[in-house]
Amino acid sequence: MKNLKNIVLSSIAATLLLGINACKPKNAGNAVSADAAIKTYVAPGKYDEFYNFVSGGFSGQMSVYGLPSGRLLKVMPVFSVDPEKGYGFSEETKPMLNTSHGFIPWDDLHHVQLSKTNGEYDGRWVFGNANNTPRVARIDLKTFRTAEIIELPNSAGNHSSPFITENTEYVVAGTRFSVPPDDKNGDVPINTYKQNFKGTISFISVAKEDGKMELAFQIQCPGFNFDLSRAGKGVSNGWFFFSCYNTEQANTLLEVNASQRDKDFIMAVNWKKAEEYLKAGKGRKQAVKYAHNVYNEKTHTATSEIKTEVTVLDSKELKDMCYFFPCPKSPHGCDVSPTGEYIVGSGKLAALIPVFSFDKMIKAIAAKDYIGEFEGIPILKYESVLYGEVKKPGLGPLHTEFDNKGNAYTSMFVSSEVVKWNIKDLKVLDRAPTYYSVGHLCVAGGDTKTPNAKYLVAYNKITKDRYLPTGPELSQSAQLYDITGDKMQLILDFPTIGEPHYAQIVPADLIKNNSLKFYKIDSNENKYVSKGESTTKVVRDGKVVHIYITAIRSHFAPDNIEGIKMGDEVYFHVTNLEQDWDVPHGFAVKGSLNAELLIMPGETQTLKWTPDRVGMFPFYCTDFCSALHQEMSGYVRVSPAGSNVPISYSLGTNLPKDEGLKK
Ligand code: RUQ
Ligand code: CUA
């Protein structure tokens, strides 16, 4: 009987979650603001006002758009190989994708977080999470390149990640899937979830000057699903808030079995307290294995180090560090208002939006206003922490961001709309349809202390009829709203790369003037650099051949290479000698089981090539760099294994014999 009820419940939930048609807004075409074209038009040659950093979801990348135009400016490779840029294919970048499991060419990037100083974006770095094989990446906004990736032990499904404190002291990451800790036997029956599975929150410290990340400590928590998170700020600085679902601790058919309870939890973590425990030596040193990968800008080379230890704080034993408060029902987003006073929980299956008060939470803790505890963690009383509830906001609340006028904006997946409400009186002020089924949304500066309330972007899961059909899969979509007035106004649709989850919008002025224009060739410390054509060479070392080659408009030096033999392992070390902005050269060779290289000015990158047959192999520059770009090419001659063709290489001198005589 119980099962039957569950199945009925589950199909109701499924209808609710999939019932997009039923809630499809009418007059889709008419919802666009009449002056949309003027508001989004950025004339040719003009810059956009904002950068929009958008997660790529299952593309594993992060993309950069200009707003309000919606122009795609760049796709930054992070967790997935990118043949366009040679990321993960060049010898220098391969170590970036190393993990304790080995080289992984893909992941699923859900959330982006810009670094902050005093609760405001500082334009230095943007962080992203790998959801599948738990990792956190830091991208340098001087180069728009991934600078560092750290793997997380004791973790699986790194979803509530990466969220940062108001001065970027920590990047925090919670497990979506609880698992047996890495140093315990994981070979246990799955239905021993309650006994053997644990959740983990990781605190990654970020060095002030250079952003270097270290896994500072982890907190071991009950085995739930930690979904999303936000740091406190202002009054609540020093705390973190995590939404938890599956507090039922189900291990199968979660859509039913993890939707039983009326309320799950938000976990509040006092991280200053955690720091005290850490200092006092209350942590347990645990043997683990995780990769820490760093791209060195001087050597243009990444290194990967496998680390073997982490300090774990136990939430069961260490008091006053973690608290639960109930939150209806299967909460997803967990967002903190600009002052830090309000915490908004978004229960995917809840018919209201609970708004919690930090002040009330602190008082409830002081008064020990508990309704019980879970694995040693006190559970605060819902009413004692609750500020109030937004009634009838819509269906399927997911995420909330804020403006600078005391308003909040919540995405409603099921009813496919953005709902604007007032934080003080919790009244719904406006609703705008999305096309369709909005997931995340972001307001310019919407998670900072002083949001810039000009634009809101909705990131939609389904586009249906919005764009020209492109086969079974349609592009995901972003929609731009002007939120300067009382009513939200839809002014633009633009397609996105992969599936967008969270995104952030930052004023262009914070970033655009710090952009690196080229790498200084004099400071290039790559082991295989050629700082000029005179130092290029081809060196045989047994069966390994190193080709030191340079690129400059419009030739490679050398461009005639002979003496390569079958069975050789060849490394093309290509240095781009240009010292000018926007003059990369590309490098590709016929039959190579590899991608191209795209080498920035002043940089050295290496392509590994194992010739598979005897013959002639052209190579060429792939990036149109000058009027004579088509001339920027060369040949490698491959001879049989036993051949006695000597190594030779040249540029401009290997002329036919008779022509040589004429000169
Ligand atoms: S999620 S659509 Cu992976 Cu941030 Cu909410
Ligand atoms: Cu270099 Cu085209």
TrEMBL record:
Gene Ontology cellular component annotations, sorted alphabetically: cell envelope
Subcellular location(s) per record: Cell envelope
Top-rank EC class of the record's enzyme: oxidoreductase
Molecular-function GO term, any one: copper ion binding
Keyword Metal-binding listed: yes
Assigned EC number: 1.7.2.4
Classification via Gene3D superfamilies: Cupredoxins - blue copper proteins, YVTN repeat-like/Quinoprotein amine dehydrogenase
InterPro entries linked: Copper_CuA, Cupredoxin, N2O_reductase_N, Nitrous_oxide_Rdtase_Sec-dep, Nos_propeller, NosZ/Cyto_c_oxidase_sub2, WD40/YVTN_repeat-like_dom_sf
This protein's UniProt keywords: Copper, Metal-binding, Oxidoreductase
Official protein name in the record: Nitrous-oxide reductase
Species of origin: mine drainage metagenome
Name of the gene encoding the protein in the UniProt record: nosZ_1
